[in-house]
Amino acid sequence: MAGVLSAKGGCGATTVTCHLAAALRRAYVNGVIAGKDGARKVLVADLDVQTPAAHRALRAAPQRRVGDAFENVRRLSAGCWSEFATEAGENLDLLAGFDTGGSARPPLAEPWRIEGLFRFLSRNYGWVLADLGRNLNPAVWAFIQNLDELFIVTAPDVLALYQTRSILHTLTGRGFDKARLHLILNRNQRGPQDFWIESIRKMFEMNVIAALPDDGPALERLSRDRFEIPAASPFGRAITKLATRLMAPADGNTAGNAGRKAH
Predict the structure, then answer these.
(1) May I ask the CATH class of domain 2-247?
(2) CA 211 to CA 69: how far, in whole Å?
(3) Residue 22, exposed/middle/buried by CB under 10 A (0-12, 13-18, 19+)?
(4) Does residue 208 contact residue 183 with C-beta atoms inside 8 Å?
(5) Side-by-side strand order, sheet with 42-46
């Protein structure tokens, strides 16, 4: 299971999560990844307690949400899971975010409920990508304890990189294994692309696992009725390349199989 966290608002964690999940799902459908039954499926879990928006990105209309799943975690089974998950495409499901109703953040689920839900998801999906929203907060801390990997989505601007540094410093200072952390540079600019990537490598002593181009026009042209990857666009090609990299066997130099939890 892997989490996706924005360094700050606007870096695009939800966009990256949903499109990356769709790219992984397409690999299953096309037979690139071996798997059968539930192991072929991909789940987007919207765990953003501030501004949950994965259902809008995926053009889905959920009837139930993650709060319902936490509340009913004792009775979760493959037979009743369709009550809580929303189908967002072939082999692609959504566990929609909390229904905030414009109010304050939802109460944090007890640790045993979080552990129970994550354990259930790891048994029933080949990949689980959790949209964690932006910044570190008590909910994110509770969730990341149950994740195998964490992707931090940053952007080529000073504030985003400052926040990235702060997040990395806090995580490693609290004992989060740096080998489980990966940087994604989103909304990258074509001209100074190599400059930003090299600067980040030197600044954080970490490689950038993917540089996704600033491709607003391609994303804006997408259908409002159904979710799809702009496969022929620079962004679409980059997100597909990232999915392919994640599917590669782990070798210490990539985040291969990052979303897969050993059963």
Answers:
(1) alpha beta
(2) 34
(3) buried
(4) yes
(5) 86-89, 92-95, 42-46, 127-134, 2-6, 149-154, 181-188, 208-213
3-state class (DSSP) for residue 258: coil
Residue ranges covered by each domain of the chain: 2-247
Number of other residues whose CB lies within 10 A of the CB of residue 89: 19
Q: Which residues make Cβ contacts (< 8 Å) with residue 234, sequence separation at least 6?
A: 213, 215, 218
Torsion of CA 176, 244, 185, 89, to 10 degrees: -90
What is the C-alpha to C-alpha distance for residues 116 and 145, in angstroms, rounded to an integer?
A: 13
pLDDT in tens, the chain (263 residues): 999 999 999 999 999 999 999 999 887 766 554 444 455 799 999 999 999 999 999 999 999 999 999 999 999 999 999 999 999 988 999 999 998 765 567 778 899 999 999 999 999 999 999 999 998 988 899 999 899 999 999 999 889 999 999 999 999 999 999 999 999 999 877 655 677 788 888 889 898 999 999 888 888 888 888 898 988 899 999 999 999 888 875 544 445 555 544 33
Q: H helices within the chain, ranges in order?
A: 13-29, 54-57, 66-71, 111-124, 138-144, 158-173, 193-204, 216-220, 234-247
**CA distances to 45, 69, 214 from 122, in Å:** 12, 14, 32
Strand, coil or helix: what is 231?
coil
Question: Are the C-beta atoms of residues 159 and 36 closer than 8 Å to each other?
Answer: no
* Residue among 134, 123, 130, 122 at smallest CA distance from 95: 130
In the numeric block, which tokens belong to residue 204? Answer: 């954080």
